[in-house]
Write the structure tokens for this entry.
Amino acid sequence: MLQRPKIFKADSRYVYMVLASIFLLLIFLSTTVSAKNTASDLVPLRPADTSSPRDTLRSFITEQLRYETNSEQLRFILIKLREQLLGHPMVIPEPVRVRYLGYAAYSKNIEIFCYLKCREQNEFLAIQEDLLLRI
């Protein structure tokens, strides 16, 4: 007569310890480098072209308006914000987005998204500050 195999019922902590040990062992084995490998054989793990300078940086701003702002005022604000962004010399005209996102906990939110013509972080912050002060 064929007998059913006995099922080992282990404590869940024991199972997690065993799985964690196996995981750590696999990590250790995958990172071990044999003596025959040289530094020239190893490939650095980093994204390609990360050191190249960028000509544009993304600006993403969320403005909050009071609940008392009616739809006519909101449309006027959206139009004027788009005009301000498109009229700024350091804003790339495509894509410029000024959109009403909806209601938040205490405000009506507007998303302002554009790319700025700059390479350095300090220049980017100065341009974004100028945009925020114009708003």
